[in-house]
């Protein structure tokens, strides 16, 4: 027995004997969703001592028994069986016992659909099936300008955006696979694809352009003006249209890489109050809006970690997303800052697949290992 299982279970113990897989059961396992029924060869029972996503699988010669802490746990047990079935020889399974539960409560994947091709629905379904099999329980589609907002066609008309109807379909598809599809709309930085148009320049922090941290000048602003009431009305309009398509109780408002903040309209205020304070005040304002909609806000952590003295001022129900994509990213320091401030957070590693032909795999693997290690050590929830 040498099954290759991803992720590998906490415990796996071989038993004597083999189980012959009924042909009909293969199709049931392969296509299982939360609304599916199991055949008589598989007994599924609830175990109140298990956590919600915890499960055990016992394969014996006369059948399969699943114990779980809830429907998600049962679903993950089936995903493990799916991988085992595919590796069976002549339809025979080695009898065994598997016990498994996650290290992180939230296991999320974010796909950038704004600076790459926007996948078709067929491709997104395939991705979701794969992520479900790998036991991810949260998915985000990183969005700047690729949602088909009715009043803003000029921004998205050449980018094959997802529509509200398509998002609703994806949301249902995810729910059937124990995945929470979290809305994601950058709401501070990375708005250059909006702000390059004259109709939106009055929302820009730096309508005459700005210089990024590497010294490169860009003629179009990428950051919204945090002091403008028009900006807030604009974002509320976007939220009114975007959020009803999602069933999630979370919302990622972005907030990363606000490169031109304090280079334009907020320059004087930044000189008086400090850039960190100006940034935090706008994040708090967004938090009040998101909370008023009954949602829990997520925000990228790359800006606030530059001002560690301000981290304790973040709203206590916020979720910070501590991202960094290099092998030597200081996750040890940053995760400790969020933990010590009592802020729930996720560690967010990267695949290093951008700006390269075949990806920087050594860097990606070291980056992911570091994020997982320090995230677990410093009590990240995801």
Keywords:
alpha/beta; TIM Barrel; 2 domains; five-stranded mixed β-sheet; four-stranded parallel β-sheet
TL;DR?
By secondary structure, this protein is an alpha/beta fold. 32% of the residues lie in helices and 19% in strands.
- The fraction of residues in strands falls at 15-25%
Structural class of the helices, strands and pairings?
alpha/beta
* Spatial order of strands in the largest sheet: 1-5-3-4-2
The counted number of beta strands is: 14
Order of helices and strands: EHEEEHEEHEHHEHEEHEHHEEHEH
Percent range for helical residues?
A: 25-40%
Please state the overall shape, judged from the principal axes of the Cα atoms.
elongated
Oligomer type: single chain
Mean pLDDT, all residues: 96
Span from first to last CA? 32 Å
Secondary-structure map:
Layout: E1 11-20, H1 23-30, E2 42-46, E3 55-60, E4 63-68, H2 71-86, E5 92-100, E6 108-112, H3 121-133, E7 138-142, H4 153-156, H5 164-175, E8 180-182, H6 192-195, E9 210-211, E10 217-218, H7 229-242, E11 250-252, H8 267-273, H9 275-292, E12 296-300, E13 319-323, H10 331-340, E14 344-348, H11 361-377
Parallel strand pairs: 2-4, 6-7, 7-8, 11-12, 12-13, 13-14
Antiparallel strand pairs: 1-5, 3-4, 3-5, 9-10
């Amino acid at each position: 027995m040498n099954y290759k299982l991803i992720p590998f279970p906490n415990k796996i113990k071989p038993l004597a004997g083999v189980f012959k897989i009924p042909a009909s059961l293969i199709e049931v396992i392969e296509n299982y969703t939360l609304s599916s029924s199991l055949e008589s060869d598989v007994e599924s029972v609830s175990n109140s001592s298990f956590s919600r996503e915890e499960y055990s699988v016992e394969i014996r010669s006369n059948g399969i028994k699943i114990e779980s802490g809830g429907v998600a746990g049962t679903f993950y047990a089936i995903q493990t069986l799916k991988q085992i079935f595919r590796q069976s020889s002549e339809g025979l399974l080695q009898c065994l016992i598997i016990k498994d539960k996650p290290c992180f409560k939230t296991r999320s994947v974010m796909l950038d659909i704004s600076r790459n091709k926007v996948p078709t629905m067929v491709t997104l379904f395939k991705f979701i099936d794969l992520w479900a099999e790998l036991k991810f329980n949260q998915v985000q589609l990183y969005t700047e300008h690729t949602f088909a907002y009715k009043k803003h066609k000029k921004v998205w008309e050449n980018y094959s955006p997802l529509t509200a109807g398509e998002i609703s379909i994806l949301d249902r598809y995810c729910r059937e696979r124990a995945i929470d599809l979290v809305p994601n709309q950058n709401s501070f930085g990375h708005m250059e694809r909006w702000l390059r148009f004259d109709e939106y320049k009055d929302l820009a922090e730096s309508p005459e352009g700005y210089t990024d941290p590497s010294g490169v000048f860009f003629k179009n602003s990428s950051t919204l003006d945090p002091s403008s009431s028009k900006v807030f009305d604009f974002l509320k309009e976007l939220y009114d249209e975007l959020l009803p398509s999602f069933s999630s109780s979370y919302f990622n408002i972005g907030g990363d890489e606000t490169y031109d903040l304090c280079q334009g309209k907020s320059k004087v205020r930044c000189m008086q109050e400090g850039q960190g304070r100006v940034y935090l005040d706008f994040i708090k304002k967004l938090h009040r809006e998101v909370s008023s909609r009954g949602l829990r806000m997520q925000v990228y952590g790359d800006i606030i970690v530059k001002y560690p003295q301000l981290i304790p001022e973040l709203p206590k129900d916020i979720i910070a997303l501590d991202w960094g994509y290099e092998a030597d990213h200081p996750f040890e320091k940053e995760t400790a800052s969020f933990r010590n401030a009592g802020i729930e957070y996720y560690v967010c590693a990267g695949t290093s697949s951008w700006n390269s032909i075949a990806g920087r795999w050594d860097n990606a693997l070291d980056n992911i290992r570091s994020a997982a290690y320090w995230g677990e050590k410093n009590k990240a929830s995801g």
